[in-house]
Write a structure and sequence with these properties.
- Keywords: Heme biosynthesis, Membrane, Oxidoreductase, Porphyrin biosynthesis, Transmembrane, Transmembrane helix.
- Pathway: Porphyrin-containing compound metabolism; protoporphyrin-IX biosynthesis; protoporphyrinogen-IX from coproporphyrinogen-III (O2 route): step 1/1.
- Belongs to the aerobic coproporphyrinogen-III oxidase family.
- Helices cover 35% and strands 22% of the residues.
- By secondary structure, the protein is of the alpha+beta class.
- It has a 7-stranded antiparallel β-sheet. Strands 1-2 form a two-stranded antiparallel ribbon. It has a two-stranded antiparallel ribbon with strand order 3-4.
- Helix 1 runs antiparallel to helix 2 and helix 7 runs antiparallel to helix 10.
- The chain is globular, with a radius of gyration of 21 Å.
């Protein structure tokens, strides 16, 4: 098995990374996103043989032969893409842990965690301006303001969501070959955002990664939504000043064997009549496959579990259940996908500890998803499988428009950018009258998993 050794991690004002992988890995492109220069050594390239797969259990990794692993057509060849180069050093370092020398798609979680820990330790020491150079765009908030209040949570969170956007966009561009359109927008009432969207790519039909930082006064409708969640809010003269920020992404691949993924991490702050502030974090990451794949489900959930376990042993089981409940399409009697984690109104044990947990979760978005993409990159599919993907996308649309809390809040907030709110919707979807898959099919197996959520780890 090929390995990567991070030989040195140095504090530096420069934000470039040396090329450390060659051959089947294209190399680690330099980028200002990374605060860490990485010097790497690696073993000779190892190629995957046809009919083999990797999966991890805990910290161990096994190499096993396989058939179609829950997929139709025993004769299909799984020819996952065998190269990854990162446009951002941290993104690439996290991602290549799962692609080292083309050997292991699902080995990324452990190494990515180690890299992320090193990043977390060094980030506070970096200059704000240096970190901003690697983003998809300059931040919503003026850089001078961010530098003045660099110790405050509003700045810490904005820097995290900007970095998360850049890391994920760079990783997706690398696998797709396309380029994100970067669209800055402003909100008249206060704040704005950066929407990064890639449509009609080779791999992704539609990929969106949004950052928003908005402030102003809560509307009555938005305040009612907060109170319905148990918030006790005391405004002054009927006004509730607030600031909300977050990063949100939905990726709709072309291939029905590559799952849709969604993540969102956000921070909310409200000033009450006496000047005191209420704050909380929310977010999560969830996977929506079109077909059941147990190894993918294990890898995705296990990567999230490892991030949660660093902070509290109950986070993963509690937030996994919360995710299954939240992404439930009541009028269909099924979940939107196979879940992940979801939490909201997180305001304990302390602001800094809650932020560190959110940061750990945000650092998993590349290693929990990109190995799955590469694994299925060249999977063949039929017209019938594509039709089933379209039906499942219809369910995705139904949930987002009827139940999603973020969409409802955005639509109830004056000045919100509708294009960014509805970015989560796919380019195409399908609604068939009285559609029900035949018993014993892979489609029926998927539906059973959605109607009866299971434990993947």
């Amino acid at each position: 098995m090929a390995t990567i050794v991070i030989c040195s991690v140095k504090k530096t004002a420069q934000t470039t990374a040396r090329r450390c992988l060659s051959s089947n890995l294209k190399g680690l492109a330099s980028s200002a996103v990374s605060p860490l220069p990485l010097t790497c050594t690696h073993s000779p390239p190892v190629r995957l043989l046809p009919g083999t797969r990797w999966f991890s259990r805990g910290s161990s990794v096994r190499f096993m032969s396989h058939g179609t692993a829950g997929r139709a057509g025993a004769g299909r060849t799984r020819r996952g893409a065998l190269a990854l180069s990162g446009a951002a050093a941290v993104t690439a370092a996290a991602a290549i842990a799962g692609f080292l020398a083309n050997a292991n798609h699902f080995q990324c979680a452990e190494m990515a965690t180690k890299v992320s820990q090193a990043v977390e330790e060094n980030e506070p020491e970096l200059d704000i301006l240096q970190r901003c150079r690697g983003f998809m765009s300059h931040p919503v908030t003026d850089i001078g303001v961010l530098q003045e209040r660099k110790g405050e949570m509003l700045t810490k969170m904005e820097m995290l969501i900007m970095k998360t956007q850049a890391d994920f966009c760079n990783a997706l561009q690398e696998v797709d070959g396309g380029t994100f359109k970067v669209d800055r927008w402003q909100r008249t009432e206060g704040g704005g955002g950066i929407s990064c969207v890639m449509q009609g790519g080779k791999v992704f039909e539609k990929a969106g990664v949004n950052v928003s930082v908005v402030f102003g006064n809560l509307t009555e409708e938005a305040a009612r939504q907060m109170k319905s969640r148990g918030k006790v809010l005391k405004g002054k003269d009927g006004k509730l000043p607030f600031c909300a920020m977050g990063v949100s992404s939905v990726i709709h691949p072309k291939n029905p064997h590559i799952p849709t993924v969604h993540f969102n991490y956000r921070y909310f702050e409200i000033e009450e009549e006496d000047g005191s502030k209420q704050w909380w974090f929310g977010g999560g990451t969830d996977l929506t496959p079109v077909y059941v794949n147990k190894e993918d489900g294990f890898h995705f959930h296990n990567t999230l579990k490892e991030a949660c376990d660093k902070h509290h042993s109950q986070y993963y089981p509690d937030f996994k259940k919360w995710c299954d409940r939240y992404f439930y399409i009541r009028h269909r009697g099924e979940t939107r996908g196979i879940g992940g984690i979801f939490f909201d109104d997180l305001d304990s044990p302390s602001q800094e500890e809650a932020f560190n947990f959110v940061k750990s979760c945000a650092h998993t978005v590349v290693p929990c998803y990109l190995p799955i993409v590469y694994k299925h990159l060249n999977d063949s599919f039929t017209d019938e499988e594509k039709d089933w993907q379209q039906v499942r996308r219809g369910r995705y649309v139904e949930f987002n428009l009827v139940y999603d809390r973020g969409v409802k809040f955005g639509l109830a907030t004056p000045g919100s950018r509708i294009e960014s709110i509805l970015m989560s919707l796919p380019l195409t979807a399908r609604w068939e009258y009285m559609h029900e898959p035949a018993k014993g099919t892979l489609e029926a197996e998927m539906l059973e998993a959605l109607r009866n959520p299971k434990e993947w780890v």
